[in-house]
Design a protein that fits this description.
The longest helix has 19 residues. The chain has a five-stranded antiparallel sheet with strand order 5-6-9-14-13. It has a four-stranded antiparallel sheet with strand order 3-4-7-8, with no helix packed on it. Strands 10, 11, 12 and 15 form a four-stranded antiparallel sheet that branches. Helix 5 packs antiparallel against helix 7. It contains ten helices and 15 strands. It is 26% helix and 21% strand. It starts with a helix and ends with a strand. By secondary structure, it is of the alpha+beta class.
Amino acid sequence: MMMSPLGIVNICLLIGLSLSLIITTPCTSVALTDCNASGYCTLSADSLSCQSLPCYKINEIGACRESPAVAYDAVLCSGLSSLDLRYDNVCGPAGILDYAYVRLPLQKTGSAIYSTTGMTVSQILAETVAATRNNLLTQLFSLNLYAASNTQLNSILSLYIAYKNDMTGLTGFAMSHPYYLEKAIYASLQNFRDDTDATKDQTATLTNIWSLSDTLLLRLRTFRKFYSTSYFFVNFAHTQFSRTYLSIKAQYSVFSLKWTQYSSNGYVQLITFAPQQFTGFSGALSDAIMFNIIDTSGVAHTLGYTLTWLITDNTKITCTVETASYLHIINRNTLVEQTPTVDIHTYCSLSGTTRRCDIPSTVIDALTPAGKAFYIACS
């Protein structure tokens, strides 16, 4: 049955009315008794004031509804229907799905303490028979990392790391698909990022996450010659030297590693993550990047390369390339910025709306020790 033009007009009027009734009360004006209930505000540490939550921490039940009963910040928050329904985001600046704050769908079932058959983390860890351990991988993968406290999260991550040889096939049994390792990594990062507990062990958690990432990169050597996956706020790529380049696309830019010659076979492996999702990196213009260059046996290999950072949307990333482009080196296990920063403006150029930085390996290798990551910012 076709709807009459009048019916369509009435529906449009109702939609327009509902949108016009959205309340945009700032958190500072919300009564303390209503602060947490608003869904996008939280009490300050001293409980004497109401402050805004970062958009990715906003309560999906109480916030961003297109309803006059909900107070929300129109600058930081858009209605649920305005964003991509493939993801659990309910908020974002100006209705944009911000890659740094994507919340991938949460695993709702399962426990952080017990596997699907009721085994505890300690019981799975205690198994020493290789064949049995291999069969217990499904129990390990059933643990819910999203539901874990920080202590529980570190226990599960330590369990994953203990099963490194089983997941990578070094015990001689079947190997796990890289997806299970990736899922554990991005679920752990989401858990860590969104955990408001001020006592969480940041160093232990990040050390475990990147140790698990190293296990993933080890698995990729036996999985496929070329491999690339994107989870928005964390991305993985891997290739043999024969491909001569490896790239990962961020929201507004692309990182590429390129090389022209090599003396033996090996792999380039790349991980990037959005540092803005963590505290203290609001000045970052690029994703943070860390990479391995190894021979076929996994030993570090020397390779002459160029790292290219290409901005695909110059309206979103602004920096005076001639004077202010720097690499900022960070410790990946603590996310603490190291010194010195590296002046790279002489390797950067601007053409129209496209900015490009071609940084030689000699500059990067001399100043970024193993285990470090770096991002690009203005200084």
